[in-house]
Each structure stands twice: as structure tokens, then as C-alpha cells.
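User: Teach me something about this protein's shape.
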Amino acid sequence: MRSTFGYVWSDSPLHRMRASVKLVGLLVSVALVVLASAPLELVVASLAVASLAVASRVGWAASARALWGLRWFLLVIFVLNALLFSTVDPLLSLGPACLTWTGIAQGARVVVRTALVVVLGVLLTATTSPQQLTSGVRDLLRPLARLGVPTEVAALAVGVTVQFVPTLLREGRQLMRAQTLRCSIARHGGIMRCAVSYVQLLVPVFVSAFRRAEELSVAMEARGYRIAGRSARPGEERRL
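Assistant: First, the predicted structure itself:
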């Protein structure tokens, strides 16, 4: 399975690593990437992420698809930083917006950081199955269970979310193709018209998400699912 956020079967060192270790490593890596600001630091971070991608043995296709899907978002981030970050020594003035070298550099830094974080997230989901990810979250939150925090519910929510993301993305692509065939999505006519056409996809995607959540809830309830460590009282129903 080689979807953008799906698990890819392989036998790499990252696949064999415990999910809890990978989650901690992800948090530390994201923090280091966000704190990197100098060009040399960003180059080192990029090389480190590239090394992880090679070690994962999942190929570059998943990361490339994820970044390509965010191309317009990354472009907007770059343009906003380039025009609004600084007003010192402007190269071009457009009312309150000023294009400066400082803004261009800041936009490039933000884009590189965002891209690296996205690649790290793709590597996590590509090398960790939903069951392993749920178990990793449960292991990390286990100390909080003594304080009364519902760790089992949090772990279940993470597992269900990870399983739903590829499904919703696939359904979104199917809806986009269907509406394109019906000429419901405008390919021409300006950015605003295209944006309005794509916003119309949100309603059926949300409806599909709620429908699948209801189906999952009914299926789990029919199978007598109970949160570990808690039992329902006689005559009491638990709805998840």
C-alpha cells in the first residue's frame, strides 16, 4: 500500500523500531527543525531527514505526493512571508505589502521547515501501522493514567484517526474526479472560482467522515467493545 499517509510494508530499521521511540523521536525532530534558522542548520536538518527516508526503505513517492499536494499552501506561505515579514529596504512596494530580501529568506525558511515536518510525518505513518501507533501512544501516556487521564480513549482516537486519513483522502479524490466529470469543478475562470469549486467538496467529505464514524461506533458497540480497565455497569450502555 503506497498511499500518501498509509503504512508501507518493509523490513527497515525504522519499521523494527518501537512506536513509542519513534513518536518521541518525531517530537524531538520537529522541535529541532522548527528551531533551525541558519542556512547551515536547515541543510543539516534536510540531510538528516533524507537519511531517515533512505533508511525507511519506503521510497520517495509518498513524501513527494504529500509535498505536491501542499504545493499551493507552501506557495501561499512563501508569498505572505516575502511580502509582509519586513519593510526594510523594499524591492517592491504594493501598498502595505513590501517585497524584501529579508522576507524572501524568511519565506524560504518557513517553507523548508514545513516540508521537513511533513516528510517526518509521512515517514512515521509509512513505517508504523495504526495498531503499533495506538500501542505507542498508550505506552507514552501510561504514566498519566495514575492521574485519572483517559489514556485508552486517547490511544483509540489516535488509531482511528490514522486509519481514517487515507480513506478520506481516497474518497476526496474520487469526489473530485466525479465532480470534474460533471463539470462541477472549474478548471478555468480565475482563482476565486476554482477555490469556490473546491470548497464545495468539503460538505460531502465531512458527511462521509461522520457516516464512517457512526458505522465504526455501531460496529464496535455490536462487538461489545469496552475500554481496557473499565467495565460497564449492569444495564449500562457505553457509546464510543
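Now, about its shape. Strands lie at 92-94, 97-99. Confidence is low (pLDDT under 50) at residues 230-240. If you'd like, I can walk through any region in more detail.
User: That's plenty for now, thanks!
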